[in-house]
Amino acid sequence: LVLSLAWLGPALGDEDKDEEVVEEEEKEKKEDEVLSDEIKEEDNVLVLHEHNFARALSEHQLLLVEFYAPWCGHCQQLAPAFAQAATELRNESSPARLGKVDATAQTALATEFGITSYPTLKLFRDGNRTHPLAYTGRMDSQGIVRWMQRRAGPSATLLQDTDTAAAFVNSQDLVVVGFFKDLRGEAAQAFLEVAAEMVDMTFGVAEAAELFQAYGLSADTVCLFKKFDERQTNFPVDLARGLDTAELTRLLRVHSLQLVMEFTNETSNQIFGAKIPHHMLLFLNKSSSEQLSLRDGFRAAAGGFRGEVLFVVVDVTGHGADVLPFFGMTPADAPTLRLVKMENNRKYQMEQDSFSDSAIRTFIQAVLDGKVKPHLLSAEPPEDWDTRPVKVLVGKTFEQVAFDETKNVFVKFYAPWCPHCQAMAAAWEELAKRYKDREDIVIAEMDSTANELENITIHGFPTLHYFPAGPGRKMVEYKSTRDVETFSKFLDNGGTLPVEPPVSKVREQPPCPGQSPAPAG
């Protein structure tokens, strides 16, 4: 509009108008535009700022708002999916709408809602701006749509008689039904909260006495119906404690999985999203009928560990081929078994593979009881590992170098594919050359994708640890700037950075999720 008026001015006979006055009027009009509570849209997404935010809340019963930063890569990646979800919801005349706020420009809103990372999604219901709900769904268009649909309508279908219940139970491979004597009671309300969150499952609810009888129930119970493994799994509501939403969510996640999963592109999210603490893996070649027969004993062992150990079959010639390097394996190693402790990625291996159900059960129980040591990967040390400026460590040589009481050892733990590691490689090499004549200082590196250590777990790349000389097996994590001069100050000061006068800093921009202000792999 402003540009149109600027171009039309001369045509309307105002040729002599001072250019500065025109510019001032344009500026005022733009300011009025920002101060207005008018709500504009981009790809069906409401464009929100501090002057139209209240209006948006009053006009839309359910409003999911993305707080973003224009420079944030995660926000840029989300944008098409967010717009697609907004379009789908609008096309189905849903009361749910999507909006977005540039939190770097709208700092008052960012402060009000405690935005510390990007993107952050919050749901505002019925105009309430004091208690928005954090978004917990998937970051794709389907995930956003399903999450909003659950909040726009009833989260569970009311089943009123045996015919509708039977049709509902048979409608999908997996459904959840809550049977409650009082649908207004606390247990039923907690169940509906779970149903609203678990948008990848279908939920029903019933209170009719005939339905309790039809499914063999006498008290409030949540039932999981499946067309695989057990047909009906019951989770009775504890009369004393009531229904714990977190525990029910966990139970449904665990029992919704097949007793033995196959690792595929379609199942990988389920496998890792179930949060089961241990995974028992059978690596086999599916083209071999002899190896396929090993699944019988594997499955027979699985029942007693449900919820504690997830059993997974990995085809070494299929989707599973991509994970073999993580275990230091090749397809020729199949068939073989590995148990993984998920909290630290420790891997356990039988001394001699035995595929009977009793042998598998015995092995798993021994690992759970702490009677088996982890199987640690180690590459072979290069012949010239200690003649280069940067010493190359592997699993089997790490102890003797890092804990040498006569040396101060500075180690970079890296992954070959990590761009942050690649970016600092030149600085690490220069640092090593700077200290190559110091007998008491060693600059080293270890590929943590090919080497593992029993008492040190690496969670991100690069990770830098300093092992000072002397007794005690001490270790100091380096967390400062990754440049040669700062590294040198750290080393020259005995493994700490000298205290320097404070420098006033510009307020740091919040990081994207999974990132930190300083580059981290």
Automatic annotation (TrEMBL):
It comes from Machaerirhynchus nigripectus. Its main location: endoplasmic reticulum. PROSITE patterns: THIOREDOXIN_1, THIOREDOXIN_2. Residues 14-26 have a biased composition (Acidic residues). Disulfide bonds join 72-75, 418-421. GO terms for cellular component: endoplasmic reticulum lumen. SUPFAM superfamilies: Thioredoxin-like (SSF52833). The gene is Pdia2. It catalyses: Catalyzes the rearrangement of -S-S- bonds in proteins. This is protein disulfide-isomerase. Residues 510-521 have a biased composition (Pro residues).
